[in-house]
User: Fold this.
Amino acid sequence: MAARSLTDVFLLMRNNAIRSRQIYPEEDASERMHLVSLTDIEEGQGNADDRMPPRWIDYLETAQMILLRLKNKISDLKALHSRHLHRSTFDDNPEDEIAIENCTQEISRMFNEVHRLLQIIKSHSRDNGVKEQRLTTNVYRSLATALQDLSQSFRSKQNNYLRQLKGREDRSKIYFETDLMEDDSEDFDNYFLHSQKMSNQQLLLLEEENVRFVQEQEKEVSAIVKSIVDLNEIFKDLSQMVLEQGTVLDRIDYNIENTQIQVFEGYKQLQKADAYKRKNRKMCAIVTLVAVTVLMLFILIIFES
Amino acid sequence: MNVIGAVKAYVEKITDETEPGMKVLLMDKETTSIISMVYSQSEIQQKEVFLLERIDSPNYANSTGLRYLKCLALLRPTQQNVELLCTELRNPKYGAYYIYFTNIIAKADIKLLAEHDEQEVVKEVCEVYMDYLAVNPHLFSIGIPYCLERLSWNQNALQRTVQGLVSLLLSIKKSPIIRFQSNSKLAKELGSRIEDVMNKESSLFSFGPLGHSLLLILDRRDDPITPLLNQWTYQAMVHELLTINNNRVNLSNIPGVSKELLEVVLSAEQDAFYAKNVFMNYGEIGQNIKQLMDQFQAKAKSHQKIESISDMKNFVESYPQFKKLSGNVTKHVTIVGELSSMVNKYQLLDVSEVEQEISSQNDHSTHLSEVKKLIQNEKIRHSDAVKLVMLYALRYQSHTSNETYNLIELLKKRAVPDPLLKNIIYLLEYAGSHARQSNLFDVEDAVKITKRFFKGLSGVDNVYTQHKPLLHDTLEDIVKGRFKDNLYPVVNNHSSGLRAQDVVVFIIGGATYEESLTVHSLNKNYANFNILLGGTTIHNSKSFLEEIENAFKGEDMRLRKHTRHLRNIRFD
Assistant:
């Protein structure tokens, strides 16, 4: 992949050109030059809109920033997940879970934020000229595609994590149940003896702990399900984008040809509209009638007086 | 040596080098095609290129300016483009300009641009060498449908071809020794023009010692058979029967085709099924399509029973992929369906069998009677009948009891239109035995006779793919080091040097997808050889005959030299 940069040559030549323009300024220009260029002012005012970036450009930048952070966050989440799943100790340390939950919530929040920004950008897509409309639509589409990819990866990670969590629980259930069985068979009497010794309060405490544990688990699962539900809404808008990838609609040359055809069609429509406007008979009739009425009024006034 | 990879790398370089911010890509007609071959719109949008414009479109000049955008101008260094860019720079529509030329540009043009850049908006000027269409990783085309004019180079086409090949060599970083087909004026001219450019721009071409790579320039006239045959591998077959144009296939003349399939894209980059089946033959594609359908049906079935929340969740998650797959399945099923209906309707299997036999065996009387039988068959197309006669005429041109004259009479009885009949004469004048240096139908060669004998003993494994293009033998000679210096001399009589590992073959007058297959399988069989194939265009039989007809435009066909005996076709 060879390439040759000609920037230096170009800059040198441009500097030379500027210098030679300064040495030999155009003659007639020096005498008739305006102190302030008139056209510039007019154009400057006329093009004020052109020079200003569209209002949504800030949103775009924010969205891009969030997307970048989102990408990092998702990989963080993945790391947290794997740490949580593969940790060697058996004690439940809630720090991990809290971290995971926070992370998930934050990701959902970011998704929603980007989605909101996207909607704003989309709402601007009917502003201004044709070209800007195209620009807005393209920006919207590309952001949506990026978002789509991320949400895809996020959702698959979530599902994966849920599945593994469930798998682990099932597995542990098998072990612990068998353990219990063995306990039952060997220390059956013992067990009863102990249990009788257990006070009611102890039992209650144990139960409370169990309930708390179950609730925690449920909260975890429901949070994840909620995040998935949230995402589905975004997802609805975006599914269309994936479909177009790989079809002729996603071809650069096809799109360019299409815009040219559209512009040409638009031009034809304009011509037609112009022709209609010129042929506006109603207006003609109204004008003549008004003129005739005024004339008659004059005649009336003159003859009466 | 991967041309698609090379062009992609250039596009990445262009989009990554500029500062972040929204960008517009300004192209001309040809660079649009070049980019479209490797990049899709959604991919380029991920690089913050949100607007695509053509500098040579008629309404570009009065479109609104958007000063907050950065402009990446990717243009060919033509006179017209430089002029357009000069007017653009005088009244810049965008905030900053990064100008990329796809080839070597003259210093005078740069100076012109520099003088017009009064507002100092240009930030960068660079040459990126991507002046060719990358079709497959090992196949490129220049995109010139007609390169000949009265049997010699059309000067514009020659210029364009030289530029295309020079940029190809630069993009894969090779400074090869150049060999050409000795009997072809065209090849010699092209070779020496490229050598001139390489000598002039020697600083660019300093990629280490000369001679490890080879540019071999061939002439289509040496092998007129390959583009005439019916093809049975997927890509080649689609091109022969439906015509692929820059990876796009127009299906609008298939009856009852749905609206979104009027035009489809066949690109191995984005379509996994296509990538897997590009070089598969017709039968295998049928099987693979069935597999794809089964896979699709299984997915569709799993989508039918949605009972629990988790089913719904799964459904929603896989729905876009499912839709995409379904689009892909419909596309390929439509194409293959159309291919198979054409094969049945025009009895292409029968036609192809005879074609293959004529091209690779030697049995005059059987072939003659088979061709006669097929000509009288009402079901086959006129064009296929004419192609059979062409093959016969080329094959048995010097046979003592040549019956081309009578076959043409038979064609006339079929009411074959006159222009098609004239094509026979054009073809014989273009690529008859007078124009070929290799023995295309070499029956005397002892090696080949034994080969054929053994082949006859073991039986042919597939009657529809017996034919091997001439290119196969040529490349095999290179790989095995048996290359003949007198048939393929080096430009300007340099010493031939070492055996080359990297070979670029270029065919003046167009390559074919069958040859692309040959190169693909050679690349696979000889791991330490790297072969690229290119052509002025990529032909199917129709475009090939059009090009030949065009090559004779303006020539007085009444004074033809080699086909005077075929008096039953008249030119007035």
The beta strands of chain A are 3-5.
